[in-house]
Design a protein that fits this description.
This protein is of the alpha/beta class. The protein has 5 helices and 6 strands.
Length: 210
């Protein structure tokens, strides 16, 4: 049975973020990594708008998911980093909103049992980009549950994929599951990762050696 997915709102400020205590999973990644496409593949329907032009997601798009993991939770499609339509001013606004979203988690830490976690999406064709490594370091420093997954793996040949997997593992300190929103590869495992993120013993990112 497919999960029931409901678009809640596009959050433009902390006042729009969830406040009902349900678990939350944030999708983090570059503007052209395919977060919205992956979200649609994950839930089995087109609930998030996709665009060929990167940088069009300027808000935190919130979706409530029921019937997937035994309890309802929110999927939060965050603005992509690394590119912003509108130049540096738009990029700064994106960063401010994303930081505010994680700050809202920080404010709840230790006061409520809310389960939260992040999925850092990286393009499997381009392992170890500076922007992705910076995002990894930022998430690791925050200390919230998080996991790294590689998208668009279907666009690689078998040989390219083997090399990319090795490079991803080196860049991100361990295995990086491969996903494809086109073929559906890895979607079942991604649900398993989400369950782990919201569990009492979730995965966390290990700081990279300096």
């Amino acid at each position: 049975m497919r999960p029931e997915v409901t678009f809640v709102r596009s959050a433009a400020s902390p006042a729009d973020f969830p406040s009902d205590g349900l678990p939350e999973v944030a999708l983090v990644g570059r503007s052209n990594v395919g977060k919205s496409t992956l979200l649609n593949a994950l839930v089995g329907r087109r609930v998030a708008r996709t665009s060929a032009a990167p940088g069009k997601t300027r808000l935190v798009n919130l979706f409530r998911v029921d019937g997937a993991i035994g309890r309802p939770f929110y999927l939060a499609d965050l603005p992509g980093y690394g590119y912003a339509r509108g130049g540096s001013a738009a990029a700064a606004a994106f960063e401010t909103l994303t930081r505010a979203f994680f700050d809202s988690w920080e404010q709840r830490r230790g006061r409520t049992p809310d389960a939260v976690g992040s999925l850092l999406l990286v393009d499997g064709r381009h392992p170890g980009l500076d922007a992705d490594l910076a995002a990894y370091d930022w998430l690791a420093a925050r200390g919230f549950p998080a996991a790294v997954v590689a998208t668009k793996i279907d666009k690689l040949t078998r040989g390219e994929r083997t090399r990319a997997q090795r490079a991803l593992e080196l860049a991100f300190n361990g295995p990086v599951p491969a996903l494809s929103a086109v073929t559906g590869e890895g979607m079942k495992d991604l649900w398993t990762t989400i369950v782990r993120l919201l569990s009492s013993h979730p995965p966390r990112l290990t700081p990279r050696p300096r």
